[in-house]
Amino acid sequence: MRDTSKSATDFILRCDAVVTISSGLALEAMLLGRRCVVVGDSPFRIAADRTLDPGDSAGDEERLLALNFLVFGYIVPCALMFDPAYSRWRLTGPSELEIVRGHQRWYANRMAPFGEDFEADLTLTTGAKLLEASVPGTERRRLVLFGAGRMAPALLGSLGRHRFELVGVFDNDPAKCGARVADVTIGPPSYRDDVEVLVCSLSHRDEMVRQLQALGYGEARRLALPGTGSPSDRRREA
Length: 238
Description:
Blueprint (H helix, E strand, L loop, with lengths): L7 H6 L3 E4 L2 H9 L3 E4 L21 H15 L9 H8 L4 H16 L3 H18 L8 E6 L5 H8 L4 E7 L9 E2 L2 E4 L8 E4 L5 H11 L6 E2 L15
Parallel strand pairs: 1-2, 3-4, 3-7, 4-6, 7-8
Antiparallel strand pairs: 5-6
Helix pairs in contact: 3-5, 6-7
């Protein structure tokens, strides 16, 4: 059967599970929330399933930690591979967490010259993929966006496709509170026991997640990209 998908992403989204020898395809499949088996010797097997048997599937938290380690800890940005200063730093034996944070700082510095528009586009892309990866079952789910920045209006178009109903928007900027987005009034972050919250920021992601945690939102009710932890630095929430 000839596949007519317009891109690898479109093809993956049509699949329930993917078996591949391609590390790049495996990574995208796992980021899109698809079960993936990597055949052969590939570092991405760390986050992949061993077989297509549902009983062999890793838990969501374990998979996110493994993906976070692979993307930010294992993969070295191409521009740094032959950089003498970077090589000397790695020879000092930094911890996994120090490597992750070092890579994240490098990516942040590379993004800075592109300005807010670039970050908004990147956040929109990752936010849409996060929604796609977070829709088990068929029930409609109630969602609050945390962050009423440039990408929020564009992301709203993805909610209906992913069975989410927008019921609120949080923002820490008092100047935005009281305004309306998609017929919903923006307000300061607060606890609601009937919603999930999608963090709509990359640069302020960690601070926003900590704020939601302090308000009482458990991990299962926060939709956000993986943070700065790695498998050996894992801390469970109290």
